[in-house]
């Protein structure tokens, strides 16, 4: 009989087959990660170019959001298009409160709003699956945008807001870098926990997960709220970058599709998969939006179709498969 608790799941999955890794690989990987983090933290001080700093902020913004999106959607295979709803809530919360409240308080307020919306959304929708969940999350993002627009027009009598705060581009960069480290560390912990195993079982077969005693609704809502929290914080951190915000900017639906494409390109089922998709696509979108601003949505759609058709499981898995030795069939 189902116990309805995550601790009904064994602490670790069955051991994977293959050659065990030497312990030295773990130390080497940790040293490389620390060196990369130090280099990224020092990068703003090493350049005086506003362009490179802006590009770094774009990379970190999408790295955080794609990794956070994959925390939930990767193992469960629930495709959420509500990314921009949480991003916009974070950005708009900062636009409203940023000039009067301390930044840490504003970030905590935005985080709370994003998590509450995610929990309410989860309670209402996570019993859905497949295309119904996709459509609902897309509709949620549009509903939030329309509600904010209605509030601005009918209550505040102003469509947009100016954001004038004493926060530099470098501070935004370092805050996004801290968010990226936090979401990667949390993702690594989840993958090794009962929670991560429960998510993988849910992604393989939700009915089997229920029969194993996994509280599927609670597990999905918890991860959906964590994912939404990081995305909301990203919006709040990014808000000072613009001096003017309106609902069309903060809740631009293109953001949801870009995050989805980046996670899929790298591989949403892997911890570092989204990063492998963020780097090439942010650079590609920089070129396309600068040279073809009027045709950018069309090109974005073509990139989406190409990724889904050519590398549906991500480039990292494609590279891994290409590196495996081919089996030779024995003569019968």
UniProtKB/TrEMBL annotation:
Mode of membrane association: Multi-pass membrane protein
Any Pfam family matching the protein: BPD_transp_2
TM segment ranges: 24-45, 51-72, 79-98, 104-126, 172-190, 221-242, 272-292, 298-319
Chief location category: membrane
Subcellular location: Cell membrane
Name of the protein in its database record: Branched-chain amino acid ABC transporter permease
Record's keyword terms, sorted: Cell membrane, Membrane, Transmembrane, Transmembrane helix
InterPro entries linked to this entry: ABC_transp_permease (IPR001851), LivM-like (IPR043428)
Organism the protein comes from: Caldimonas aquatica
